[in-house]
């Protein structure tokens, strides 16, 4: 049941029933300064392994104002949307901590082509990301500053974006998509197309790294992304290679720390991970070829592991016999081993997807989360994708573009919420079918999808 309480131009307030659009993509349905009251919901608060007793949750503006088992009286002086949850689950919006918002629907060639076309695709994908229940993403590389602004200003619907800006890499490193015909590089000369677009930047000395880091911060980066080792998708970057020197990595760390934020490093191998840690990097992305000694080191130093249960479809997407497929075959077996190390040594572990160049895989975002069931209970996986991921986001300090509590349902937290048909703590597969099971999607106190409306 949904009703709207309006302030009327009469002596007594007037209660008017209304119908909300079941799927609003371009704008929210919640008016500025209004409130929303969820009644009769079971709460997964982002931290607990069990649902609450039937409860009521009041949203005022963009914050959770009150949670109570007892009825909450409606303030008739403001517009209030009342939603009868019918015993459904109310939970935090999901967070993907390794996303590439500008590099999902395009092909590698298109990513360096028409900027207008690529931007429109990124905007459409951002809306679909939100409609899958992902209210926040940490973007680990790509030209997303304009996309973030468009979302924040309400031009299009999409998730909160924690942007890194361009990936900073070395010549022939992961993220260097130049061809051999683009060599030799003229130091201080013209930028390559990928650099002009802000996808990645090549830096081959501490001074260059420092400048490229500061450029991303100048544009609004909330954290910095470097590639400390080789990668799968780049054509001239073997996975066993250690790229940046410690001095180069340290230059980025120093520049980021001067801005009150941190560096995340793409790294697979023990050598790449250990060098990054020695330089002061706070988050290791991937880590899938780490050994036990490196896992122990990460645990002892309190280093975050941002890990991805990469889907088999991503590996199989590379042509058989291609250099990318050969490298993928080297990396994929390490996924299970790394999760086992993370659990054994209690490494602080975040979750993300790292989908690239595939709208089909992006639609499986929730299913990739559900695949954590190989190593974690549904509750552990959902905690990771909500409050734990939100904890990592706070490393951005004063560069945090969205100050406030994310990833939890508690008083004072930002109102990024999902109303779920069923109990995801018992059946995590519910998140794999958001169009069916996420009946309400709210971000920043605004309703973007309402499947209960008539």
How would you explain this protein's 3D organization?
By secondary structure, the protein is α/β, with parallel strands linked by helices. The protein folds into 2 domains: 2-93 and 407-450, Urease, subunit C, domain 1, CATH 2.30.40; 94-375, TIM Barrel (Alpha-Beta Barrel), CATH 3.20.20. The longest helix has 17 residues, at 115-131. The model is unreliable at 1-27 (pLDDT under 50). α7 (270-279) runs parallel beside α8. It starts with a strand and ends with a strand. It has helices at residues 108-111, 115-131, 145-152, 193-196, 206-219, 246-258, 270-279, 292-301, 312-316, 323-331, 334-344, 359-362, 365-370, 378-393, 434-437; strands at 2-6, 14-16, 35-43, 55-60, 63-68, 80-84, 89-92, 94-99, 134-139, 160-163, 167-169, 200-202, 224-227, 263-267, 283-286, 304-307, 349-351, 417-420, 438-443, 446-450. Strands 1, 2, 3, 4, 5, 6, 7, 18, 19 and 20 form a 10-stranded mixed β-sheet that branches. Strands 13-14-15-16-17 form a 5-stranded parallel β-sheet. It has a 3-stranded parallel β-sheet with strand order 8-9-10.
List keywords for this structure.
single chain, 454 residues, alpha/beta, TIM Barrel, 2 domains, ten-stranded mixed sheet, five-stranded parallel sheet, disordered N terminus
């Amino acid at each position: 049941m949904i009703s709207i309480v309006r302030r009327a131009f009469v002596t007594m307030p007037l209660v008017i029933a209304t119908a909300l659009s079941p799927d609003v993509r371009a704008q929210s349905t919640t008016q500025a300064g209004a409130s929303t009251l969820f009644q009769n919901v079971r709460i997964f608060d982002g931290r607990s392994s069990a649902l609450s007793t039937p409860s009521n949750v009041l949203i005022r503006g963009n914050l959770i104002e009150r949670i109570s088992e007892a009825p909450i009286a409606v303030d008739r002086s403001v517009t209030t949307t009342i939603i009868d949850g019918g015993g459904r689950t109310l939970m935090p919006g999901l967070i993907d901590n390794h996303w590439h918002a500008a590099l999902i629907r395009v092909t590698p060639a298109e990513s360096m082509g028409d900027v207008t076309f690529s931007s429109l695709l990124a905007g459409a994908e951002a809306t679909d990301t939100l409609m899958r229940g992902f209210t926040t993403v940490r973007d680990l590389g790509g030209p997303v500053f304009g996309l973030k602004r468009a979302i924040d200003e309400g031009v299009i619907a999409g998730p909160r974006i924690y942007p890194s800006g361009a990936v900073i890499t070395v010549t022939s490193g992961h993220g260097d998509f130049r061809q051999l015909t683009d060599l030799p590089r003229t130091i201080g000369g013209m930028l390559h197309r990928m650099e002009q677009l802000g996808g990645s930047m090549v830096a081959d000395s501490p001074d260059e790294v420092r400048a490229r880091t500061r450029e991303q911060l100048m544009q609004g980066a909330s954290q910095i992304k470097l590639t400390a080792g080789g990668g799968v998708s780049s054509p001239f970057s073997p996975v066993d290679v250690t790229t940046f020197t410690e001095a180069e990595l340290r230059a980025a760390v120093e520049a980021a720390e001067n801005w009150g934020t941190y560096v995340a490093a793409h790294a697979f191998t023990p050598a790449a991970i250990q060098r990054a840690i020695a330089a002061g990097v706070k988050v290791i992305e991937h880590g899938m070829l780490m050994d036990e000694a490196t896992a122990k080191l990460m645990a002892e130093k309190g280093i975050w592991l941002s890990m991805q249960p990469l889907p088999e479809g991503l590996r199989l997407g590379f042509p058989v016999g291609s250099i990318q497929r050969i490298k993928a075959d080297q990396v994929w077996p390490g996924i299970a081993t790394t999760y086992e190390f993370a659990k054994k040594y209690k490494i602080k572990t975040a979750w993300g997807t790292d989908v690239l160049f595939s709208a089909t895989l992006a639609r499986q975002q929730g299913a990739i989360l559900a695949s954590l069931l190989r190593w974690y209970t549904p509750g552990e996986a959902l905690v990771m994708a909500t409050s734990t991921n939100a904890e990592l986001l706070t490393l951005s300090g004063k560069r945090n573009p969205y100050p406030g509590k994310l990833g939890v349902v508690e008083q004072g937290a930002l109102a990024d919420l999902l109303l779920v048909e069923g109990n995801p703590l018992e059946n995590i597969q519910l998140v794999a079918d958001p169009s069916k099971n996420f009946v309400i999607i709210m971000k920043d106190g605004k309703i973007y999808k309402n499947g209960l409306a008539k």
